[in-house]
Amino acid sequence: MYQTDPPRSPQEVLPTMYDLKSEDPEEKGLPDQFHLLQPRLLDETFNSPTYPSNKIFTASDMNLYYDPHHPTWYKRPDWFVSVDVSPLYKNGDLRLSYVVWQEGITPFIIVELLSPGTEKEDLGQTLRNVEKPPTKWEVYEQILRIPYYAIFDRYKYEFRMFKLDGGRYAEIDLSSSDSRFWIPEIELGLGVWEGTYNNIQQPWLRWYDVSGNWVLTPIEQKERLIEQLRKLGVEPDI
Asked: 187: phi > 0 → left, psi -120 to 50 → alpha, else beta; which?
């Protein structure tokens, strides 16, 4: 490729992860920065009054095995949470995957972050090839029957929520709720927050509490404590 005059920026000419194949020809690519940070924020703000921390398991980009008759079939959600499940195996080991028929509990909510390679499948707009495993939508809706399915478009910053209703996903109208959705079973709500996370200012998907306040991350909790101490005339030893 010949360089232009003036030279074009790398952002314009270099391929993205979505243009390149990994060693596995079926693999769409490795997560970009947003797909790393957004799940982390969901992890840090998922603090359910209904379930203690030792009964919550969250994961991102982890293989989710769903069919004991086809044990190699899996989906890899961008983020999910299972409640009433220990975050570790009984022997204290970390999970390498989530095997539904061994855990005995399916995820409670799955969040997919739209990307160019998976957008149609995430939205249930692809038809199943009978010679291949079912699509994400089919697995979440019809096989695992995940109660809640959230989709967040990082390009439009659009949040869509689907709730299982009569065996099918029904989309919730969020137009009158300021892009927020309350989930009574876990006493938490999910919504779009405009703010700075990891020094990046943009809309993010995060959890809020029963009072409508955004659940604080550990760093935000520390910052608030420092501020409160200083108001009391105490200078923290940081």
From this structure: left
User: pLDDT digit string (tens) for 72-88?
Assistant: 999 999 999 999 999 99
Q: Is there a contact between 164 and 145 (Cβ–Cβ < 8 Å)?
A: yes
Q: Which residue has the tokens 């991102």?
A: 60
Q: What is the pTM of this model?
A: 0.84
Q: Do the Cβ atoms of 204 and 157 come closer than 8 Å?
A: no
The span from the CA of 128 to the CA of 143, in Å, is 14
Amino acid occupying residue 51 = Y
* Dihedral sign, Cα of residue 108, residue 114, residue 157, residue 163: negative
* Beta-carbon contacts of residue 212 (< 8 Å; ≥ 6 apart): 189
**Which strands, in side-by-side order, build the sheet including 74-75?**
74-75, 64-65, 98-99
Residue 108's CB is within 10 A of a number of other CB atoms, namely 21
User: Which residue shows structure tokens 């550990």?
Assistant: 218
The pLDDT mean for the chain works out to 87
Given a cut of 60, is residue 22 above it in pLDDT? Answer: no
Q: Record the tokens describing residue 218, joined without a space.
A: 């550990």
Q: Which contacts of 156-165 are long-range, i.e. CB under 8 A and separated by 24 or more positions? A: 157/192, 157/202, 157/203, 159/190, 159/191, 159/192, 159/205, 161/190
On whether the CB atoms of residues 114 and 154 are closer than 8 A, the answer is yes
- What are the tens digits of pLDDT across the range 27-54? 555 568 899 999 999 999 999 999 999 9
